Amino acid sequence: MLISRVVSARTSRIDEIPTPAPGAGQVLVEILASGVCTSDLTPWRDGPTPGGGPIALGHEIAGRVVATGPGASRWRDGELVTGLGGPGFATHAVLEADLLLPVPAGVEPAHAIGEPIATLEEAISRTPVTAGSRVAIIGLGFMGLGLLQLVRTRAPRTIIAVDPNPEARERALALGAHVALHPDDVAAYAETGRAEGSGGAAAADGAADPRADVVLEATGVTPGLATASPLVRPFGTLCVVGYHHAGTAPFDMELWYKGATVVNGFCPDHPRVMQAMTDALRHVADRRFTFAPLVTHRFGLDGVDAAYALMAAHAPGFVKAVIEP
Fold first, then answer.
1. Domain 2-114+291-323 carries which CATH code?
2. 16, 38, 117, 161: which one has the fewest Cβ atoms less than 10 Å from its Cβ?
3. pLDDT tens digits, residue range 90-119?
4. Residue 77: C-alpha distances to residues 28, 68, 81, 114, 322 (Å)
C-alpha cells in the first residue's frame, strides 16, 4: 500500500509499506476519499519532532471494504463505508468495525465523509436549536457552512451568518442564511433592532431583540468568541464548536450577566459521535445536507501538501479539500 506522511515542516512523502491485515473486530478499507482537516495543520506545518518518525495524518475517511477480520462479519467486501479512524492519506487503512457506517446509496464517497459532520451534529444535539429559533453562526469555513445546513434541518426562524470574508458570506446566503454580517457589524446589528423595537430593520424575523437564542462559534480563535458574545440573547446559549487547541480562550463576562449557557461543542466519546454520525448521514441520504458546495478542491495522494497550503493561506475559493488516493 501507499501512504503519505509528513517528513519535515510542510513536506510530505509517499512511501510504500506492507498492507496491514485486519485483526479481530477490524476491517481493511480501500480509501476512496479522505478530508483534509484544520486540526492537522500544526503537525503539517511543524513536521516531526527532533528524532521523531514521519507523521501519518488524515482521519476523515470514506472507502470500500476489501477484507474483514474475525468478529466483523456484518461488513461485506465491496461495501462503501465511512467512520472514525485513520491514517487516511493512504490507499488502505485498518478501521474498527464498530466505528463504521454505510455510505448512503447514490452518494459519492467524497460527499459522504462521516467524521466531520458527525462532530457538528453532536454539538448541535446539545444545544436548544428548535423550530422557530434564532441561530447565529460565527465563522463560515467548512465547519460553519456545515453547521448552517444542519441547523436548517431544525426549521429555525432566522439564521445569522458572520464572517469577514465576503465570499464566505455569499456562500452562507446561498445555503439558506437570512442575514450575513461582517464581524465589525455585529455590535450594531445586536443593538439596532432592540432600540427600534419590532419594526427595526436589523431583525430579520421582526423580533424586538435580534440577538440569537443559540450562537454557534466555529472559528477556533479568540476573536471569534468575542464576536459571538454580543449576539447571545439573555438566557441564550453559546456553543463553542471551533477547535481552540492551545492557550487561553477568554470569554466576555457579559455572558455571565446575561445568564447565558455555554456549551463545549467538542465530544471525546465515540458512542455519542457514532450516534450523531447516524443522524448526520440520514440528512445526507435525504439531501438535507450536501458536501457538494463545500468540497472545493480534490487532490491525489501526491497533493497533500498543496491541500494544506491552500487551507493555511485561506485561499480564495477554498472551503474543503479531499484527498482521493
1. 3.90.180.10
2. 16
3. 999 999 999 999 999 999 999 999 999 999
4. 9, 8, 11, 20, 24
DSSP 219-261: S-SHHHHHHHGGGEEEEEEEEE-S---SS-----THHHHTT-E
SS (H, E, C) 274-301: HHHHHHHHHHHHCCCCCCCCCEEEEECH
Name beta bridge partners: 298: 322
Q: CA distances (Å), 189 to each of 89, 178, 179, in order?
A: 43, 13, 10
Would you call 91 helix, strand, or coil by DSSP?
coil
What does the pLDDT look like over 227-248, one tens digit per residue?
999 999 999 999 999 988 777 7
Residues 127-264: name the CATH superfamily: NAD(P)-binding Rossmann-like Domain (3.40.50.720)
What's the pLDDT tens digit per position in 238-285?
999 998 877 778 888 999 999 999 999 999 999 999 999 999 999 999
Q: Kind of pairing, strands 232-240 and 212-217?
A: parallel
Q: Where are the domains of the chain?
A: 2-114+291-323, 127-264
Structure-block grid coordinates of residue 62: 470514506
